[in-house]
Amino acid sequence: MREGEVAVEAPPPRDAGLVFIGRIRTPWTSRDDTPRQGSLEGPVCRLEIFDPWKPALQGLEKFGNLEVIYWLHLSRRDLVLQRRHNEGEPRGTFSLRSPVRPNPIGTSMVRLVGIEGATVLVRGLDCLDETPLLDLKPDRCQFSPAP
Ligand code: SAM
After folding, report:
1. How far is the centre of ligand 1, averaged over its atoms, from the C-alpha of 125 (Å)?
2. Is residue 1 part of a domain?
């Protein structure tokens, strides 16, 4: 923890019934080396989709940009005030996109590079290798229901 940060006694996590639909493979193995936010010019990362979810990829290839939702599994979950690197005043967790939050869900808008079997290739991520994948959705701006 940094000076000025505040942790609380967080209630024990309850099972929200989430299933990990896959695993994200990225070049980053240390949090310090991982970008704070992804870039569409960043490296290609692989979303490995687990059985039985592969058929759920059908139609995804029509979209150029996707929203990726993931579980920042190594985050602590009890800070209510946090200080960003090199920033003076602590700030409330809900005013930050920090991975440290009661439910460490991360989201990124990414560019779809390709789909190889049960693996989706994207650019634009900012998570550690082996981060659990929660969901994939088309970019809501591009979503238009079929006529
Ligand atoms: N783009 C997402 C968002 O805005 O919701 C996440 C942003 S968060 C600032 C990205 C940082 O989380 C990375 O720089 C790294 O320090 C940390 N991180 C990445 N993967 C993680 C993981 N699996 N567990 C814990 N921390 C992680």
Report:
1. 9
2. no
